[in-house]
Amino acid sequence: MIDDEESILNIVEAYLKADSNTVYTARDGVAGLAAFQRYQPDLVILDIMLPEMDGLEVLQTIRRTSPVYVILLTAKSEEFDRVMGLTVGADDYLTKPFSPRELTARVKAVLRRGRAMPQDERQVYAFQHLKIDAQRYEVWRDDELIELTALEFKLLTVLAMYAGMVLSREQLLERVWGYDFYGEDRVVDVHIGHIRQKLERNPADPQFIVTVRGVGYKFADAR
Predict the structure, then answer these.
(1) Cβ(58)–Cβ(46) under 8 Å?
(2) Considering the entire predicted model, what is its pTM?
(3) Rounded distance, CA 79 to CA 85, Å?
(4) Domain 6-113: assigned CATH number
(5) Which top CATH class is 124-219?
(6) Contact 86, 98 (CB under 8 A)
(7) Is 70 exceeded by the pLDDT of residue 223?
(8) Of 88, 101, 79, 103, whose CA–CA distance to 149 is shortest?
(9) 20 to 30 A Cα–Cα from 111, which one of 7, 40, 72, 142?
């Protein structure tokens, strides 16, 4: 957990340790990155307003090398930063002031997801222009390897599993984030947009993930 408010660090650390988690803390962005690189945690709780290096910079740096789950902590007035954080790779967010019990519940829900992919007999999903290798965590567009975060990869794989079928935001939240997800369904739109930026040659006219207005999304690459 990276936060410059010692009282918040102490309270959250106590709650998380009571849930049998190992917790490392840092009070600024630079120290937080150093701790992250040293301990390689399963999840990062990251405040946006940090000294030395702000939370968005820390998140961008983490995302260059790691798909680790990240939960952002934001003030209620930081809507732009919250959306920007989701765009550059955060998995969830919580606004301050927050309940330590709610944060602990979200951490538990994320860790319960682990890195497991949806149950399916196939390990490779092959389409006309895309190949998704669920065992190697690789996505290929024709001959180009596309780098996705773990959550983006899982979201794309769920859509590919139901290729041609429309999935609502609620269905995607259940299959990717889990039934106990506490956030808003707009997080689906943000991550779909991020996948499109990486995957589509023209994100404004998507070829692979198509919006069905008023319903949801469907995977459209032909087999």
Answers:
(1) yes
(2) 0.56
(3) 10
(4) 3.40.50.2300
(5) mainly alpha
(6) no
(7) no
(8) 88
(9) 7
